[in-house]
Amino acid sequence: MRIYFTFEPRPDLKDPLVAEFPEVDFVFENALSIEELQKADVLVTYGEDLDNDNIQYAKKLKWIFVASAGVEKMPAQAIIDRGIVVSNVRGIHKTPMAESILAHILAIKRALPWMYEQQKKSEWSKKAKQSELRDSTALILGPGAIGSEVGRLLQAFGVKTIGCNRTGKEAVYMDDMVSFDGLLDTLPKADIVISVLPKTIETTHLLKEAHFKAMKNNAIFMNFGRGNLVDENVLIQAIENGEIGHTVLDVFEEEPLAANHPLWTLPNVIVSPHVSSHSARYVERSLEIFKPSLEKWMKGERDLENVMDLSRGY
């Protein structure tokens, strides 16, 4: 069996992997090679290097392991047509992303950005507009692995959590649940609105003008899922009209964000360049999912962890 990685893990992660599976022919490169793709039985990728042009060369490919949660840049239909199994690392992002989200919330509540600016000016001032997180309400769009971890941390701070998904089905660490249909009626209750939704047809421009008008004008709006959630012109209008108090964005409709994009300079907006999931332990956690799945695959089993339904996008 030939397994082709289009990235190279650190030696302390790669060497144990190779030693644990001596019967596997591993190939590690830091870019996708057509020559290697033609020979691969299994492909391990971040998901951005495989496209409709090069997948035609992957004649032997039977399984793609995506070391990422999103697969929107992959040639979904071609993969479906070929019957290739796709699994990913859903769940490994929950710790760094939840910590990133909580860090931004606490920074805003305790006026840390304002303090940093005062320090740059060597100005001693106690006029910071600080508030408490306790006793607030957070609406979490997409209470899956990441959203539920956010909910767990927020509950520890005394925050009421409301989850929102397509069906309204219960999720852990959510005090209440609503469906997408109940979103508009729930938004006025939320002090913090956090989206960690995946990119699907249903989530594309899910939030519209009416949703921002329904939010508290001092609410914190955070998008850490995918940039398709809202038309950025709608979001900019809501910010300029004072319909929300603070905005924290880790994802955008077009990435990287253009240097002249208005979101860079609008007041009370924090731009995070899609780094909330980054961690020194990212590949380590990915391999913790890959190894058990590889053991199953080599035994002929196909009930791998995190098998994806590409027709749904997750």
UniProtKB/TrEMBL annotation:
<feature type="domain" description="D-isomer specific 2-hydroxyacid dehydrogenase catalytic">
    <location>
        <begin position="24"/>
        <end position="303"/>
    </location>
</feature>
<dbReference type="InterPro" id="IPR029753">
    <property type="entry name" value="D-isomer_DH_CS"/>
</dbReference>
<dbReference type="InterPro" id="IPR036291">
    <property type="entry name" value="NAD(P)-bd_dom_sf"/>
</dbReference>
<keyword id="KW-0560">Oxidoreductase</keyword>
<dbReference type="Pfam" id="PF02826">
    <property type="entry name" value="2-Hacid_dh_C"/>
</dbReference>
<keyword id="KW-0520">NAD</keyword>
<dbReference type="InterPro" id="IPR006140">
    <property type="entry name" value="D-isomer_DH_NAD-bd"/>
</dbReference>
<feature type="domain" description="D-isomer specific 2-hydroxyacid dehydrogenase NAD-binding">
    <location>
        <begin position="102"/>
        <end position="276"/>
    </location>
</feature>
<comment type="similarity">
    <text>Belongs to the D-isomer specific 2-hydroxyacid dehydrogenase family.</text>
</comment>
<dbReference type="InterPro" id="IPR006139">
    <property type="entry name" value="D-isomer_2_OHA_DH_cat_dom"/>
</dbReference>
<dbReference type="Pfam" id="PF00389">
    <property type="entry name" value="2-Hacid_dh"/>
</dbReference>
<protein>
    <submittedName>
        <fullName>3-phosphoglycerate dehydrogenase</fullName>
    </submittedName>
</protein>
